[in-house]
Design goal:
Its EC number is 2.7.7.-, 2.7.7.108. This is Protein nucleotidyltransferase YdiU. The protein is of the alpha+beta class. It is built from 18 helices and 13 strands. Among the domains are: about 5-175, no CATH class; about 335-420, no CATH class. The protein has helices at about 5-10, 35-40, 45-50, 120-135, 175-180, 190-200, 210-235, 285-300, 305-310, 315-330, 340-345, 355-375, 380-385, 400-405, 410-420, 430-435, 445-460, 465-475; strands spanning about 5, 15, 25-30, 65, 70, 75, 85-95, 95-105, 120, 140-155, 160-170, 235, 260. Strands 1, 3, 7, 8, 9, 10 and 11 form a seven-stranded antiparallel sheet that branches. α7 (about 210-235) runs antiparallel to α8. It starts with a strand and ends in a 29-residue tail after the last helix. The chain binds adenosine-5'-triphosphate and magnesium ion.
Length: about 500
């Protein structure tokens, strides 16, 4: 790894230097060749294992924990910071630099009561989901590796420690800006310094003046909306959308009690501690905006309120636009048609007038909403139901989706509207292939991750983890020998809810 140290060198006072503590008997549990390529690495080796388990120093690394604060479950905590994630620096890759962090690398000045460690089960989940989301084209931080150990750590019972080696284009979170705005550390000089650094490093096309700041916040609103549209389209519930877990780049970040939906349920809660469903699946779009408002608040010392509000006002429409784009692909709804043109089967794609586009969007949102209501009332699996569109011929009145329904009459009404909307499909094979290229067959179901974890815990065997990793690298491909992994969970694995202790 070849490091540069821009954050460390340019932002003194924004972190504490701290050395990670080694974990004993380190061993690779998982390694990602795809992530390794991002920072110009090839295969794992013994030297690297010792460096990434903090047994040896990594040449060129600086080792620091960043300070930030954040709104957790709606309440403001004035100081959080990296309590168990220690950053080595920015590793230079062929297409840009990536922060390398040891998550679970030991205590830092921000650990409060925590031990600075991560347990194996949570490290493995973070590793797997980083791989899975990347393969689904969802913006995300990455994981280079997960390293097991025999170091005991205590949660509800004794477990063993592990380290996830996280790669992120940046570790800067909404909470960083909150920290330098609010409370006794409130310091406009430092706030501007951080904004300027962020723009120079990650929004290099923007200037660091009033116009640049305004555009910068607008782009954050847009990328956050886009990320959440992705989550809703693949059925991903994050679980802990605190502002300290929101990346300034709109990358999915901090994987704790996350889950992919099995049975579709708008109100699905994956976090055991989320008693009120603040971060329920269907709440995520609204929470995204709430979090952006907290960021906007923190930026009021340096960006005009009117500009912040104008940007916030674009969130909803961007989220809907992105969600429609993704879901139209999944269901095969032709984008460039107007309702009127559909009725006359005139698909010659003239650009739509604004009103026609708005009418079409409203129509499609309704159609999609009714579809998810059908999934929920019939208790159907989200991923598997969408995958069925790849076998569907919309010109036929029969569809395998219908066979899944209990409310057949409700489905028939919906399906008629769907057929009308899709219209005639000239090349049905091509149409079906397109559906299969955007509707995954394989997702990281919680119970699959759980099975891999149990095998490591009980038998020290990581082969299930490796198998899952390979499977999830190609989520859209038929992998006939892996058919079982696409099934709905067994009874014990239905709606698994994860605790926050990790
Ligand atoms: N075992 C631990 N020891 C020390 N601090 C911890 C521990 N677990 C969590 N924290 C700290 O508690 C706060 C909230 O934790 P949260 O679960 O959001 O983050 P995380 O998963 O530890 O890390 P990240 O957000 O970097 O992915 C953070 O400041 C985090 O560093
Ligand atoms: Mg966190």
């Amino acid at each position: 790894m070849q490091f540069k140290q821009d954050f460390f060198e340019q932002l003194e006072g924004f972190y504490s230097q701290v050395y990670p503590l080694p974990i004993s008997n380190p061993h690779w549990l998982g390694w990602s060749d795809d992530a390794a390529q991002l920072i110009g690495l090839e295969k794992p080796n013994a030297e690297l294992l010792m460096q990434l388990s903090a047994n040896y120093a990594a040449p060129g690394a600086s080792y620091y924990a960043q300070v930030y604060s954040g709104h957790q479950f709606g309440g403001y905590t004035p100081r959080l910071g990296d309590g168990r994630s220690i950053i080595l620096g920015e590793a230079i890759g062929p297409n840009g630099a990536w922060d390398v962090a040891l998550k679970g690398g030991g205590p830092t000045p921000y650990s409060r009561q925590g031990d600075g460690r991560a347990v194996m089960r949570s490290a493995v989940r973070e590793f797997l989901v980083s791989e899975a989301l990347a393969a689904l084209n969802v913006p995300t931080s990455r994981a280079l590796a997960v390293i097991g150990s025999d170091l005991p750590v205590w949660r509800e019972s004794q477990e063993t420690a592990a380290i996830t080696v996280r790669l992120a284009k940046s570790h800067i979170r909404f909470g960083h800006f909150e920290y330098f705005c609010h409370g006794e550390q409130g310091d406009t000089g430092k706030l501007s310094q951080l904004v300027n650094f962020t723009i120079k490093q990650h929004f290099a096309h923007l200037s660091t003046d009033a116009a640049g700041y305004k555009q910068w916040f607008y782009e954050i609103v847009q990328s956050t909306a886009k990320m959440i549209a992705h989550w809703q389209s693949v059925g991903f519930a994050h679980g802990v959308m605190n502002t300290d877990n929101m990346s300034i780049l709109g990358d999915t970040f901090d994987f704790g009690p996350f889950a992919f939906l099995d049975t579709f349920k708008e109100g699905f809660i994956c976090n055991h501690s989320d008693h009120e469903g603040r971060y329920a699946f269907g709440q995520q779009p609204a929470v995204g905006l709430w979090n952006l408002k907290r960021l906007a608040q923190a930026l009021t010392p340096i960006i005009e309120s009117d500009d912040l509000i104008a940007a916030l006002n674009t969130y909803q429409s961007e989220l809907v636009k992105q969600y429609l784009r993704l879901m139209r692909g999944k269901l095969g709804l032709h984008q460039a048609a107007s309702l009127h043109a559909l009725n006359s089967q005139d698909l010659s794609a003239k650009p739509l007038s604004q009103e026609a586009q708005a009418e079409l969007d409203k129509h499609d949102l309704q159609l999609l909403g009714l579809f998810t209501v059908l999934l929920e009332t019939n208790q159907l699996d989200y991923t598997n139901s969408l995958r069925r569109f790849g076998q569907l011929d919309p010109s036929h009145s029969h569809s395998t989706l219908r066979d899944d329904m209990v409310d057949v009459a409700g489905f028939d009404t919906w399906y008629k509207a769907y057929q009308d909307r899709v219209g005639e499909v000239a090349d049905i094979h091509g149409w079906q292939c397109e559906r299969n290229s955007v509707n995954p067959k394989y997702i990281l179901r919680n119970y699959l991750a759980q099975e891999a974890i149990i095998d490591i815990e009980e038998n020290g065997d990581n082969s299930k983890l490796l198998q899952l990793q390979q499977l999830l690298r190609r989520p859209y491909d038929e992998q006939p020998e892996m058919e079982d992994f696409a099934k709905r969970p067994p009874d014990w694995g239905q709606g698994l809810i994860m605790s926050c202790s990790s």
